[in-house]
Amino acid sequence: MSISRTTTRWNQTRRFVRRHLAWGRLYRATSYLKSALWTVPLVAIVLEQLLAPLLRALDAWLRWRLAGLEPAGATALYQTVITLTLSFLVFTFGSLLVAIQVRRRPADTADHRHDTVA
């Protein structure tokens, strides 16, 4: 085998491995990012930081008075949203806790079903 042919074969193999390894890394990274819990809040924070000044400028330019609330009314609305959000979180995590307990209950009682009380 000639040196040029060996070099060509080596370059082809190297490109093949790089292409496939890059695809594997990309697949692993996207799979991790889809399953990770921190990515959505991070993206939301970045988007908020980027879009909030633009929306404020648009609001000042259009002079919208959507709800026409005074500061006291806006504060009351904000407090209501916070209260409802916390209530939703408590309800969601409470339901999750009940679901976990129901799921574990048959496993706990299955071991004692043949026990008799004298």
What does this structure look like?
- The protein has helices at 3-35, 39-62, 71-110.
- It has 118 residues and is mainly alpha-helical.
- It has two domains: 1-64, no CATH class; 68-111.
What average pLDDT do the residues reach? Answer: 83
Shape: flat
Class inferred from helices and paired strands: mainly alpha
Percentage of residues in helical conformation: over 70%
Number of strands: 0
Supply the number of structural domains: 2
| Low-confidence residue ranges | none
Write the layout of secondary structure elements.
Elements (H helix, E strand, L loop, with lengths): L2 H33 L3 H24 L8 H40 L8
List its salient traits.
flat, 118 residues
Characterize this entry briefly.
By secondary structure, the protein is mainly α. It has helices at 3-35, 39-62, 71-110.
